[in-house]
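Request: Show me your protein:
***
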Amino acid sequence: MTSPVPTGQDIRNRPVVVAVASGKGGVGKTHVSVNLSVALAKSGKRVMLFDADLGLANAGVMLGRPAGRTVRDALKDGVPLTEIVQPGPAGIGLVSGGSGDASLAVIEDDVLDGFCREFRVFEDDLDYLVIDTAAGIAPNVTSLVEKSDFAVVVLTDEPASFIDAYGLLKALAQRGRCRDVLVVTNMVPNALAGRRLFARFKQVASNFLDINLEHLGSIPHDNHVHSAAMRKRCLVEAYPLSAAGQAFNTLALDIAKRTRTEILAVPNTAFFGEERDARAG
């Protein structure tokens, strides 16, 4: 029998790391992180969501999961990472950053690096690790984005989102460790409006920044998003056939397709503490 040709993900023998970021809060970054994670899991992937908005984490609220052990327990009390993972919809695992602890808002680079290395324990058990970063350009945010295989920036059609997303890209470009970024246009009227928003953003960014942008896709305005939030359930679980729910399924398929491309056959291993390949996107 002829053995199948391994995909990029098989060659890597470790999870694909997807970091979701935004220049400002309120653009639906956590909404994207949560629903992308569950959509990937529903497609048969083994997924863990790391809510890295340390001190102000709320992915658990969107998933309807009560507060349990968090990153604080690992960093302050030495609780093993395996003991703070909570089960979520479709079988995802959730690592919560905790809420209301200001000491977690800014942690030293070496402490964050050490915590990321702890995720090695899951290397054989996961296909994807999705990181919901904090909003903004703090060093903890840019560091996590740079350590990822896919850097995803969430953008909405409002001036503050546009300007702050540009600011995030500028910070990443200046550090020189992230060359490629995927953009999700969120809360747009339709796919055409999303493509036009991305085109405007790319034109501005490309004029001044040495960074490559691609449009991952759009999430439309959908009243089901609010309904799911009030029920403390993620959208793709509560309303999988809604317009936004189907859009998340499309995003998950696109991420899976990109994972199989040749570029990911050579891993960016920085998140797990190994020598990076100078590419985060």
Observations:
- Residues 13 and 41 are 18 Å apart (CA to CA).
